[in-house]
Amino acid sequence: MIKTDIPSPLINWPELLRLSSHNMMPERKPEEGDIWENAAVMYNKMAAMEREYTFAQLDAFDTSPEDTVLDVGCGPGRISVLMAQRAKSVTAIDSSEKMLNFCRENAEKAGVRNLTARLLDWNNAVLGENLERHDIVIASRSEGMRDIEKLTSFARKYAVMIAWANAPCIPDILGDLFYGTSAWEKKRSPMQRDRRLGYNVFYNMVYDLGYDPNIKIVTDGFTKDYADYEEAYADLCTLGEIRDGEMEIFRNNCNKWLSKNDKGGITFRRETKTFVLWWSPEKRF
């Protein structure tokens, strides 16, 4: 006799996914306002500093010049602009108009003409109604990571997730730079990251949903060259807030990641790690 009852899963993957998403992208309290609008300038500067490392993320999966790409929660276009240089076209969506304005500006600076930036909250995206299927769909540290099936449903070739690999993220890195300054500590606290709720959960969730996932861990980071230390301090301090009397604290924090380069100037470099997880929307069972 064939038993038709399907046993309950041994692991509650949806709950672990919720916890993992929070582990990497903690939800903001309503009283904090629109975090993405308020942080757009900072994220644009950080995206520019991460550009050198972003290539390794995109090299993890293959992109054809004929592919169409959807970037979910595109921010200032860190992924979108570089993908537009590889693919046929890119649709970049975000719920923040300020982020989209930076995305458009960065596309124009790069000479990209095949990128369309749209104001659209991923939670309101409906396949076939306000957003079409694309060959490659990417969710990089964005809301798209919270619903694997929805993300996959918009993809023909690959669905892709890109996020921190149990390593320091932007809030952590900025927290280190501004540690000890009163203005920063009132706004932020270090993320309490649980290694058990990292990319392993995303990988196994995708697998258990019936897909055949691939994963690669790449070195990530943020870097920028400056003429001298003073120029570095003046630029890096704009990533947060410094009050009178706190600049010396900030300078000492920065010095850990500043070094002389072979061009006679100073280089800021802070490295971390990122995972790239991608899979075909074709189910294996």
How far apart the termini lie comes to 22 Å
Number of strands: 8
The CATH architecture designation of the domain at 13-167 and 191-221 and 272-279 is 3-Layer(aba) Sandwich
Fraction of residues in β-strands: 15-25%
Largest sheet: 8 strands, mixed
CATH level-3 fold name of the domain at 13-167 and 191-221 and 272-279: Rossmann fold
Q: Any idea what the radius of gyration is?
A: 20 Å
Structural class: alpha/beta
Looking at this structure, what is the CATH superfamily of the domain at 13-167 and 191-221 and 272-279?
Vaccinia Virus protein VP39
Low-confidence stretches: 1-6, 28-33
Average pLDDT, rounded to a whole number, is: 90
Identify the quaternary structure here. single chain
User: How many helices in DSSP terms?
Assistant: 11
CATH class annotation of the domain at 13-167 and 191-221 and 272-279:
Alpha Beta
Estimate the global geometry from the Cα principal axes. Answer: globular
Provide the helix percentage: 25-40%
**Order of helix and strand elements from N to C terminus:** HHHEHEHEEHEHHHEHHEE
Structure description:
The chain is α/β, with parallel strands linked by helices and 285 residues long. It has a domain at 13-167 and 191-221 and 272-279: Rossmann fold (3-Layer(aba) Sandwich), CATH 3.40.50.150. The protein contains 11 helices and 8 strands. Strands 1, 2, 3, 4, 5, 6, 7 and 8 form an 8-stranded mixed sheet that branches. The protein is globular.
